[in-house]
User: Fold these one by one.
Assistant:
Number 1:
Amino acid sequence: QTSQAEVVVFSVPSYACQRRSTLENHNAVLTDALALLAENAELSEEEGRGVAFRRAAAVLKALPRPVTSMTELRGLPCLGDHSLRVIKDILENGASSEAESTKQSERYKALKVLTGIFGVGAKTADRWIREGILGLQQLQESGQTLNRAQQAGLEHYDDLNQPVTKADADVISEIVERAVVSVLPGAQMTLIGGFRRGKLSGHDVDFLITHPEEGREVGLMPKVVSWLESQGFLLYQKTTRNSYLESKDGPGRPSSNMDRFERCFSIFKLTEKERRRTKHPETATENGLRTVSTPEPDPHSRVQISERSRCEDEELEVDQTKQAGHKLWRAVRVDLVVSPISQFAFALLGWTGSKLFERELRRWAGHERNMSLSSHALYDNKQRIYLRATSEEEIFAHLGLEFIPPSERNT
Ligand code: DGT
Ligand code: MG
């Protein structure tokens, strides 16, 4: 005997930024299917449909246990007719026929392969597919003109489609830290993106760099890039000015700050030697910030001894690796962002993700608070003022939201 009260079991707030979403997921079968349909919609440039599936998946991810019947979903937000059909199909038949047929479709497979090339987006992939190019071989034979990013993407295709581990992200953190300390003592760098949210793997490694004195960060990116280049760490890099004003994010930022906010898309060459060098990365401080001006406390002699024994181990291991025919390095996508300290909290919040969490924060700000949030600033449209913040906590407070730590932004 089931009473009405027992049927309504789950209660979930409608905005993802009001929820605590850890990496735990009790409904992976359902959310995998919805994520696949979301991805297919995004790759077909049907953004609205993509977001609808992403929101539905996020609600299921927030549930404390597996869904077993449709009645349990009553009253939950963000579950549209289409998503409900997909869920019903899975609960009744064990799989979603739509997700399965999408996964098998030539078009989806081709879109996946082609957008797997760094520098190739949905538009380019679609054009190629219409020209009959469905795979890498066909692309290479087609004589299509590829830009520099796409050439690098094709060259390092296998590596870049291999997940980056947390361990490798830590090694790259060390390298970026060395670069930053060499070119500007006192500068600070923070691991952002999925790794800041505690993910154990990712498609790239993202860093935010700043300096506690406003203005000192100007010109920092080219110096960091030159240093990395001179040390042979970069297989590819393209630095762009932040294209915020060209994006669809809406108003929100004084134009004087615009030329201070730069981004570098790069491909790192991560060698076995670097991996060994960084066996025990320092643990980051609570907010993820590391001041890079502090010198290592190790006495010189101790460093030398450990270097020597490490070198011997290394030679042996390198020999073994060579004999096994393995490549001694891998390519890794790395994104660097430089922000002035006055915008640091906004940049940190904006670049930690997840993408849906960010989208939901902006939607909440606009629809519920009449404010415009970006990675640069928070503007109150009613009072017509910018709201200052030096921490993520303050931004959540301005927005009237409970603070959600990075590890619970895995929507
Ligand atoms: P991953 O790398 O696939 O494991 O996952 P994430 O969460 O690290 O995703 P990623 O690296 O694409 O982006 C990290 C966050 O940075 C994402 O939540 C949103 C933000 N983000 C990415 N691209 C842009 C951009 O062009 N502009 C702004 N404002 N934010 C961006
Ligand atoms: Mg990332």
Number 2:
Amino acid sequence: KEDLQIEAQKILDENAQEGGFTIPSKGLYPFQWKWDSGFIAIGLAHYDMKRAQQEISSLLDAQWENGFIPHIVFHNESDSYFPGPDFHQSFLHPLASKKYKTTGLTQPPVLGFVLEKMLEISKNASSVMSFIKTHIDKVYENHRYFYTNRDIHNEGLVYIYHNWESGTDNSPVWDEIWETVDAPQYTFQRKDTTHVDASQRPSDKEYNLYVHVIEIAKKYQYDDQKIAALSPFLVQDPLFNAMLIRSNEALMNLYKRIGGNQEKIDYLTHHQEKSKARFNEKLFDIDLNAYIYFDLRNNKPIRHITSSSFTPLYAGIPSKDRAEKLIQVLLDRFGGEDQYLCASFDPTSELYNPKKYWRGPIWMNLNWLLYQGLKRYEYEALAERVKNESIELITSSGFKEYFDARKAIQEASGRGYGGDNFSWSAALFIDLLH
Ligand code: DGY
């Protein structure tokens, strides 16, 4: 395991870029991604706190004037990725970053709890605290952005307008939405399938839809109100909202530690209570006993269970009773003896595909979130299982992007798929070992 820790650090070092950020994986993802950077900073914090800080500050440097943080920052040029720096045209939005080309999409709001984790890991709390003091307001402004612009019913739940914002890109959860969308055929050249076997990536038809939704947002200059009114994809996602709630909590803890800042604490407290209550009301399905999704555009719940369904545990959202029911579902559907935890999509569903990106494989960041959630609710043995299985998968298959949950399968290439030397697999492996 020590050797593997050294290897994990080597991957993070090799993926480091000038400008202080880390790419997720060479070739496949050659820029800075928002939630990747958050998880990467947690790993870096264990051996190079200065670099962990640079990871976060280089991302925040691309924050828009309205508080928005984009999902990709194009610090550098690279033609190995589609849709790249010139496709997104974030400059169409009047408040976009003037310094960098970015996307006009975001990703789950992990930065609040990442700052708190960095402090927890730190052996020199005062130097990390001074970093936090100079950066926390940017994260706070990001949360204000969400509540101001993306909570259309003023109910404490924010929307995403694109599947790439969910982080769980091609989940079967979105299939029903795509069926409602009538998109023209766009001309573009995918690059991802030149790096990774197409059977492990989204389909061309899906990519055409992904492009279509961005073209609509571009047509309206990435204006949030117009997007809310017109985007064919408009969803309240349990992972996204759970991350916002967990990060709200972290910001409140950190502001209390800093002192003062009462107005910000009050603002966060108000939204926190409202968000948690509504989350439990609207996103919990009492027949499935699990957290699900709400399709705002078509005004109906999307009743699938995914690894995102368990992330509310980390945010302290369910009551103890509800947590117990949720964990029973986890064990029944995802946790049989023949499976590693935790598949990204319900293995009992006919839509489950154990090799295809977010349609089934295990992802280390979702396993990490599950591990934290189980610990929070004191399911110690199950938390240990998730941790040990995560370590085992990496030990047997390397720092791949995603992993096959089926124990019976033994491919010549191991059970890992997608990109190689994947940064957050390495970073979270380091954290799990500690
Ligand atoms: C991709 O290109 O697959 C990314 O996940 C989009 O952010």
